[in-house]
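Team,

Forwarding the record for the chain on the shared tracking sheet. I've put the sequence and predicted structure together so nobody has to dig through attachments.
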Amino acid sequence: MGGVGGTPSGVRGPASGSAGIGGRAVLGWCFYDFANSPFSTLIVTAGYSQYFQEVVATGNRSALLWGIATSASTLAAAVLSPWLGAVADQTASKMRFLRAFTLACAAFTMTLALVGSGDVGAGMLLFVAANATLTAATSLNNAFLSEITPASRHGRVSAYGFGLGYLGGLLATAAVIPWAGGSLSTPQGAATFRWIFPITAAWLLAFSLPTFAWVRERPGSGAQTGASGTWGTGWRRIGSTLRELRRFRNLALFLCAYFLFIDGVDTIFSFGSRVARDRYEFDQRLIFLLFIFSNFVAAVGTTALGFVTDRVGPHRVIGWALAGVLGLLAAVALGSHPAVFWGAALALGCLLGAIQSAARALMARLSPPERQAEFFGFFSLTGRMGAAIGPIAFGALWSPQAPWRAIGFLMGLIGTGLWLLRRVDVEHGEREARSA
């Protein structure tokens, strides 16, 4: 990975003078995915999600309440991320904010261990705070992509990050299995299970250190570190960017497509364990084993597809992967044998990772070089606003006896996103970004 940072002639890359270019900077950047991915598995998908719905908020409304909490966290991140990105760009403070929001997420995640049966309000608020702060931090880390590697390698470097992230999710899930084996229906089992949350927080802090140490920020030409009025200026700059989006027609079209298909992707992550338990009768330990195997397959597959992304373009990879997801969702809705879900889950892990990795690479290509944090903030805004819809709708529609209602809704979202994506002209969009 030491040669990833080089810029071939004729290819737009990071501006000269970037302090963070090089193999160590790439590795440090990728380590943030390794650090934060266990949060997705052990908090959002299979850990706290399961704990909340079986211990904290029991009964028929537990899925709906979890959907509300997930959507509220995405809305909070949607409001926060663009403003934070605008301020970070203007003050050359992406790394400072990245550290602060990572620490905040770790603190909120650790306190999830204090949530017990019936603590619905506290359990929802703490999760909203943890998920929103990590989403904002991840958006800031994403904005470093164009500073650490040239555009010709965005696909593979983004895939390195996601591949390492899946590996982190795999190792962290394997590490917490001793605490996940008991029954959540007993007080002792629930108390043991809660140790997963501080372990996740400690993992995030420990493996973020290489990012903090090795990734260096390149001061922007308009940086005004410490300038008065910066916080208010952040909102004004967001308003200006929204008005300017009509100049970035292909970026705006991509964000509309992303709004739809990432809503489906995030909902799959949020309710995968619920479908496994309700429809396919997986127990708690089997769900964790499934996520270990799916993370391993996803780590290998996503990394390999990163090279394909650089060869054929992220636009095509996203389209192919979305078409595959539609087929797999249909199989899950129609099937009932556990082997169907095992096969679909393993394939989905690979495809969903490729979609997210390629989308990040495509966003870096379509964004103006000097405003990456701000535009990645809008990328996060779009994804979070979209992801606020799916979980609530899925939670309200889900029934093990009639899975087509909820899964068909997801297929509609993803299919419409794929239709819009095919209308994006990437080459023209890159020219729009360079001329900004």
